[in-house]
Protein: Matrin-type domain-containing protein
Amino acid sequence: MAKKSIGSSKVDEITLQYLLGTSDPIQAPIKSTGQNKSDQSRTSASQQVTMGIPQKSTKTKTRRRLRDLDQISADLRSPKHLAQHKSSKAAEDLPGLGKWYCIQCAKWYESENSMVSHLRGKPHKRRVKALKEGPYTQRDAEAAIGQGPADNGARNKALNVEVEMENSAFLDDQET
Structure:
């Protein structure tokens, strides 16, 4: 019979308890013997999965979420729309007390220096280029999934233009 490692005996014990119905291995904490420190670190990491916050990654992503391109293009077209967005945030909570704001990127900056360096950077230039193309519309979304009217381009009408051929003199001789 082959030698069993310490970790496999724990697994066998937990499996046996689960099969007998005495405990649930998912909810029951794994008791460590203290012989292997790496087993203890893995155990504590598995018990701290979300720390009481369900779907923590989703919450973090929404915290960093910026405005969409259609909202930003509305800001550029209408100063009233931009003023409404700026007034929704308290100036004390914003970086630099809300003095330096990049409309195209929808970001606040701490100082004029950081704002100027941002305006020279690639992310800002990419955003300006994306905004020149125009905001997304429902028609674009339907075309992307294959619905909506087909865009076959403008149809060419038959042109009534006489074309002179290279051998037109030869054809004229044969007709007479």
